[in-house]
Amino acid sequence: MQSFLEKTVDHLHAKYGDNISNLCIVLPNRRAGLFLKTYFAKKLNKTFFTPTIFATEDFVALLSELQNADTTTLLFELYETVKECNKNNTETFDEFSKWGQILLNDFNEIDRYLVDHKQLFGNLKDIKELNHGH
Question: Are 11 and 40 within 8 A, CB to CB?
Fold first, then answer.
């Protein structure tokens, strides 16, 4: 059974032939783009220019002309924010970075899946209160 990407390559090859280099394809992630290029190579079985392939995140960044901040920058900014909010905290950046990276990943997932953050953090607060009550 053919995968979705293999069917996509067959469709694009049937419609555009070997002239696929002018296409722009947007996929959910970079990994899918790598698989798509592999399927193109198998299908065409010759040297060719691949179409432009973007992950959704990269395509949106291109259109918006905004740059994604790198993880290190985000981690330092989060650390500064945590220090500002909790003046009594004497945690070093080294100590913070262990759980700060996890927190950044969690925030990214919340954003990626459009989770209702008020409900999520409300539920977490309620769970914490229940745990301390017992």
Answer: no
Question: Could you report the per-residue pLDDT of 52-92, keeping only the tens digit for each?
Answer: 999 998 999 899 988 888 999 999 999 999 999 988 878 99
Closest to 53 measured CA to CA, from 81, 32, 67, 70: 32
> Taking residues 15-29, what's their average pLDDT?
91
Phi, psi at 49, each rounded to 5°: -90, 125
Residues 57 and 33: their CA atoms lie apart, in Å, by: 13
Q: Give pTM, 2 decimals.
A: 0.60
**Residue 20: how many other CB atoms lie within 10 Å:** 19
Cα 104 to Cα 122: distance, rounded to the nearest angstrom: 19
* β-pair type (24-27, 52-55): parallel
Tallying the residues shown for the chain, one arrives at 134
Spatial CB neighbours of 89, under 8 Å, sequence gap ≥ 6? 82, 83
